[in-house]
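User: Please predict the structure of the protein below. I'd like the answer in structure-token form so I can feed it into my own downstream comparison script.

Assistant: Understood. Taking the following sequence of 198 residues as input:
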Amino acid sequence: MKIIGLTGGSGTGKGTVAARMREQGAGWVDADAVYRRLCAENREMLAALDAAFGGVLDGTGALDRPKLARLVFSDPDRLRELNRITNPYIRAASRAAIQAQAACPIVLYDAPTLFEAGADDLCEKTVGVLADTETRVRRVMARDGISEQAARARILAQPDDGFYRARCDHILENNGDLAALWRETDALYTILSKGERK
């Protein structure tokens, strides 16, 4: 089993790339889904978030994710604090989920903060998915039902393209030509399967 890190900012289309590679036989672990599950189940992590950010749990003890998002995406220091608290929990749960798919030749670890969390050390290779800002804004607004201002704030809080180009072994561009993206994704999957460097 090869673990391949899949990363990039909001609205770049990591899920589209993952879906195509899954059709080729790849396993897939979504760090965001792991985080959502932890937010629903892990009382220790939730208590740490509430202590750090104050009042981000609702009356039932569930995490108010929109409230937390408003706090952290407008303040880089608070975003770093969020990652400091959650990353160890996400890493441990993700490792377990990856090992559960050990029968797959490749398992994609789909993680927006792969490098920031230091989780690239789990991966044999890394793939960055990029798209231009306006395309990303439109996608995030449509996907999450948020305003343009909120979408731009989220994107601005994330690393720029240069961050991924400097760190990833492979880059896929996803600016809207789905047929081209699939061709590039299929070619990359073949390379990753053989263990060659692009």
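That's the full token string. The two ends are 19 Å apart (CA to CA).
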